[in-house]
């Protein structure tokens, strides 16, 4: 499975928007990531504005989702 597909599946499985995924990536990496950047990663690969979805972006999103889930779980339990 390519990075674009992995990223899309993460968004779908967790009910996350492209904009919020950019926020999560920014929080994890401490580097700016805009919604426009995410959109270029997920755009149809045949479009001129498409960019390859980087592995670090998928990994940062996975970490961000994990942090988010742990925070929600700790609030629910505490």
Radius of gyration: 13 Å
Alpha-carbon distance between the two ends: 38 Å
Contiguous helical run count = 4
The gross shape turns out to be: elongated
Structural class: mainly alpha
Uncertain runs are: none
- The percent of residues in helical segments reads over 70%
List the helices and strands and how they pair.
Blueprint (H helix, E strand, L loop, with lengths): L2 H12 L3 H12 L5 H8 L12 H23 L1
Helix pairs in contact: 1-4, 2-3, 2-4
Which structural traits does this protein have?
single chain, 78 residues, mainly alpha
What does this structure look like?
With 78 residues, this protein is mainly alpha-helical. Helix content is 71%, strand content 0%. α1 (3-14) packs parallel to α4 (55-77), α2 packs across α3 and α2 (18-29) crosses α4 (55-77). It is elongated.
In short:
With 78 residues, the chain is an all-alpha fold.
């Amino acid at each position: 499975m390519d990075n674009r597909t992995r990223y899309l599946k993460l968004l779908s499985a967790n009910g996350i928007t492209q904009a919020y995924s950019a926020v999560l990536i920014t929080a994890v990496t401490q580097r700016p990531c805009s919604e426009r950047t995410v959109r270029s990663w997920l755009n149809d690969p045949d479009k001129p504005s498409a960019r390859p979805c980087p592995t670090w972006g998928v990994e940062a999103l996975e970490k961000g989702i994990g942090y988010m889930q742990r925070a929600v779980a700790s609030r629910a339990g505490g």
